[in-house]
Specification:
The protein is an alpha+beta fold. It is built from 3 helices and 11 strands, in the order βββαβαβββββαββ. The strands form 3 sheets. The chain has a 4-stranded antiparallel beta sheet with strand order 2-3-9-4.
């Protein structure tokens, strides 16, 4: 009932977690190691595409997601120069507007490294067709802004009583999970949200 607060859940993903507006899942393969091509097929088989990365913050978020879902191992991403050596493209067709190569990568060692992998350190490496890891990052598409969040709470639970905050529930990753309250300044409320 307070005109200066907004009590809501952020939209959530049916599969994976929201990362930069997209639903991405870090998929552990367990004991079975996978090549890049096997990860592509597995991800596509579940309705996704290997993830693309478009900013340093997204790279950090994806690495954190991989750490949480798979542990500190390398994770396949959808970056390849298989078609034209040295011309790296994303499987989803998006622009190559950011690269996170580690040190002297891509090295194309032996003339056969054409597949992008997000290393446990956060940098990228180019790997061969026979290289394997136990994790891949699968993108299931954009977050649906109309989808209700999966937070489990009464709206009043996140309301801090302050008239100039957005009271939201963050971090709901799956249906039925519990989010965390965040009370953020709401300067969009005219006349009631001064910074005094």
């Amino acid at each position: 009932g307070n005109p200066c607060t907004f009590d809501a859940c952020e939209p959530s993903c049916e599969s994976g977690a929201a990362v930069e507006g997209r639903c991405v899942d870090a998929v552990p393969t367990g004991e079975a190691v996978m090549t890049w091509s096997e990860a592509v097929a597995a991800c596509e088989g579940s309705g996704g595409v290997l993830a693309s990365v478009h900013s340093a913050s997204e790279n950090i978020s994806l690495r954190a997601l991989a750490d949480a879902g798979c542990g500190e191992v390398s994770a396949w991403i959808g970056f390849t120069d298989e078609a034209v050596e040295g011309t790296w493209v994303w499987l989803d067709g998006s622009d190559t507007d950011f690269v996170g190569w580690d040190g002297s990568e891509p090295s194309n060692n032996g003339g056969a490294e054409h597949y992008g992998v997000l290393k446990a350190t956060g940098g990228w490496n180019d790997a061969t067709a026979t290289s394997t890891t136990t994790c891949y990052l699968c993108d299931f598409g954009p977050v649906d802004p109309a989808a209700a969040g999966a937070c489990v709470f009464e709206p009043a639970e996140c309301n801090d009583g302050e008239p100039c905050t957005l009271d939201i529930c963050e971090g709901a990753l799956a249906s039925g999970s519990t989010g965390t309250c965040a009370n953020l300044p709401d300067p969009a409320q005219p006349g009631c949200c001064s910074t005094n």
